[in-house]
Design goal:
The protein has 240 residues and is an alpha+beta fold. The protein contains eight helices and six strands. The chain has helices at 31-45, 61-71, 91-112, 115-121, 132-135, 165-182, 196-202, 233-236, and strands spanning 83-88, 138-145, 147-151, 157-161, 186-187, 208-217.
């Protein structure tokens, strides 16, 4: 049985308050088991690199869906879960996304972005050309749902405020990227700016705003990545 098969989150799980409460199910692990689990996780995540050169080889989309199920388990403000994940595999749709993204990126690289930002990007060798948007076998578009759309007692549409949207969708995106790495996929976190064209191309409602575009697949045989380092632990954490 697929390891993720037991994960089920449906609209019926999103209850209106007041919530019923139940005893917490929690397994207290031994220190050895804690270390073993974290060790395996760190080993896998430390190998993750941003990939811009993808193989067109097909992938098992059920594994991508399992990773999205994991993303859907992320915490969110007031449990509103203000996210949606669209998986794009249609070649013509991917072509439209690439064309629109490259048009926006051209404007960014030739006037929108300040020179300071361009200087920061220069060592990575990025530009407005995004062939990976067509080559990668799947694109995951992460949408944030800025507000809910509900009907009042008269049938009129009104907005329902969502809280901590960016924080919630950011957490879910982190879960997603980690899950895809654990599944053995290469990914890229891509944010062409502005990204309004994604909701237009995919026909999403007006309250859906693109948050992140993630190409998913296997790296090309000749894929190359820059030699970079991460900040040492002493710079990203302290104990007080």
């Amino acid at each position: 049985m697929n390891a993720c098969a037991k994960i089920t989150v449906t609209n019926e799980s999103i209850m209106t308050k007041p919530y019923p409460f139940k005893p917490l199910e929690f397994e207290r692990l031994s220190r050895e088991e804690q270390k073993a689990r974290l060790g395996q996780f760190v080993e896998t995540l430390s190998q993750r690199r941003t990939v811009r050169e993808f193989s067109p080889d097909p992938i098992d989309l059920s594994l991508v869906e399992d990773a999205i199920r994991i993303a859907g388990l992320a915490p969110s403000g007031a449990n509103q879960q203000p996210w949606h994940f669209s998986v794009v595999v249609d070649q013509e749709v991917k072509r439209k996304i690439r064309k629109a993204a490259e048009e926006e990126e051209y404007q960014s690289y030739h006037g929108r972005m300040p020179q300071e930002w361009l200087d920061k990007l220069a060592p990575l060798g990025t530009d407005e050309h995004k062939p990976f948007l067509e080559i990668a076998p799947a694109l995951i578009i992460v949408f944030k749902i800025d507000y809910g759309l509900i009907q009042d007692e008269k049938g009129n549409e009104k907005k329902e405020k969502h809280y901590y949207v960016n924080e919630s969708v950011g957490l879910a995106s982190g879960f997603l990227v980690a899950a895809l790495q654990m599944a053995g996929f290469a990914t890229l976190t891509h944010t062409p700016s502005p990204m309004g064209f994604l909701a237009d191309i995919l026909g999403k409602p007006k309250n859906y705003k693109a948050f992140l575009l993630i190409p998913v697949g296997f790296p090309a045989d000749d894929a190359r990545v820059p030699v970079i380092t991460k900040k040492p632990f002493s710079e990203i954490s302290d104990r007080i």
